[in-house]
Amino acid sequence: MHFEKYKALLIQKIKTQMTQWFESNDLIANEEVYRFLHSIKGTSGTIRLGGILQITTELLDKIEEDADKYWGIEELRDFLYHLIIICDEYENFQELEIIPLNTREGNIPLIQVIDDDVSMLIVLKDALEEKGWMVIACTEPEKAIEQYFDLHPDCIIVDYHLKSNGLQLLDEIHKLKFVPTIMTSMDYNREIRMDAFRNGADDFIQKTVDIEEFIVRVNRQLQRKQIFDTTVLLDELTQVYNRRFLKEIFNRSINELERSKTPFSIALLDIDLFKNINDSYGHLVGDQVLKSFAQYLKENIRSSDYVFRYGGEEFALLFADCNDKEAVDILSRILKDFSQHVFNSGTDRFQITFSGGVFFVNDPHVSLTNALKSADEALYKAKEQGRSRVFSSNVMVPGLVKHILNVSVVDDDAIVRTMLVKVLQSMKLDQNTLNIQAFEDGLKFFQSNRLDDSGEHFLILDGVMPVMDGLEILQKVKQRKDKDRISVLMLTGRKSENDIARALKLGADDYVTKPFSILELQARIQRLIQRMS
Ligand code: GH3
Ligand code: MG
């Protein structure tokens, strides 16, 4: 006998009951919960829904039938969490092959796909994600450039015929940086291929794409990138040490501290309002500023000190045999002098400043992560108090400053909302505290004035909702002046190619197709949020 129909009915029944509970404002009698679980247990055993049987059995063991208790909604949600998850997975994955996730921990490669043929984009993104890689997809060249500089992908796949020219884009993002680039094209003639290679493409793949071969070729490029990352110690653009070498030097300094009791200080510097430079004068000018800044730092420190490029426009410094007060003094002097330097772009002239945070290491048990975290807290404080200043974290109470990231979930499905909030709550992020809120629809979201909360915002929007759907919200959000501090992840239906196309055109930062696996989504959110900060 086939149980498919009954399985679907049972899952529907579970979802309906849970939705009804979660949307009511009343307390729920224990007896009601007990009876519900009992009935689910009976049916699920019969129709061979083993996972649900197991979960309901475990839940029933935890509550007593005649306990005189009432459940609050939050408490009940927590209690039924595993049941919610498993229903969702059953419902969404009955026809899908379950793909084993590749190692999700550690450094998952990030691939940027840029193609204005949305059907192709979807196919490539799906294929790459099946491999366990993270993909950031994009149809608009301007957005692509922005994402490239924000997210530093490990491989770029760009279409030759991209409107306004894929080659130009390649050229722009390729200057001075090592990131493997694959160009795709419908045409495969010699001229086009040569054009692509001349402009820096590392590989050229003809459409229609043979997916299996495509994956192998992408993998090869990712391996090259990994070898590059692990063998090179200098940052290509700025010619100061890279982040990897910071670990090495930090360890050496710790050894030195243990051996000869010589303490040291570590600093994090971040250029102020650097985005404005890119926006006003273009990324090439931005790159020039980074180079000048790095060069200036190198020239103004002692030969026993080190400069590292820590991230996009962030630099780390290690001052040997130096306490935090001395380091703050040195950096404040550098800041004063450097901010007087006038940059030129065409006829425009501009000056820049930076903010900094310092941490004094005089205990050999301090880890690099914690030292950086403390320096970052001071940096954050310097930004908060008006930028263009350098603080020491040693004089602050540690752990007080945390970046707050506002995450909003807007979805009309109570189950999905519950799940997402749970997933977000369970995430462990180094530098961020998440301020999570869920909304039933776009109207409620805007009425709450949620976007007035200070700090960065990350929105997870359901594409289809009865009252103001995700696309409308996205459109409104992207019209705001402060749109740059808001990132959007769109949840769309697997078949709604038009919605995906519109979402990307409107400036969504990423999309995930429903049905999605919770683990997969968790990894993606974690990665996006971590990269955002
Ligand atoms: P704040 O004072 O708060 O630090 O403001 P900000 O604008 O400097 O900070 P934000 O983090 O908003 O922007 C940093 C920008 O730096 C965003 C990113 O596009 C740009 N960026 C990162 N890496 C590079 C790079 O290698 N070259 C160029 N040109 N820009 C980069
Ligand atoms: Mg900055």
Describe it.
The structure is a single chain. It is globular, with a radius of gyration of 26 Å. The model is unreliable at 95-106 (pLDDT under 50). Helices cover 49% and strands 19% of the residues. The chain is α/β, with parallel strands linked by helices. It has a 6-stranded mixed sheet with strand order 8-10-11-9-14-15, with helices on both faces. Strands 4-3-5-6-7 form a 5-stranded parallel sheet, sandwiched between helices. A 5-stranded parallel sheet has the order 17-16-18-19-20, sandwiched between helices. It has 4 domains: 4-93; 101-231, Rossmann fold, CATH 3.40.50.2300; 241-395, Reverse transcriptase/Diguanylate cyclase domain (Alpha-Beta Plaits, 2-Layer Sandwich), CATH 3.30.70.270; 402-533, Response regulator (Rossmann fold). The protein has helices at 4-23, 30-46, 50-62, 73-79, 81-93, 118-130, 141-151, 166-174, 190-198, 211-231, 243-260, 274-281, 283-299, 324-338, 368-384, 414-425, 442-447, 470-478, 497-506, 518-532, and strands at 28-29, 70-71, 110-114, 134-138, 155-159, 181-185, 203-206, 241-242, 264-271, 306-309, 314-320, 343-345, 348-350, 354-361, 390-392, 403-410, 432-439, 456-462, 486-493, 510-514. The chain is built from 20 helices and 20 strands. The structure holds 3'-deoxy-guanosine-5'-triphosphate (GH3) and magnesium ion. Residues 270-272, 274, 313 line the site of magnesium ion. 3'-deoxy-guanosine-5'-triphosphate is lined by residues 149-150, 237, 270-275, 278, 283, 286-287, 290, 312-313, 383, 387.
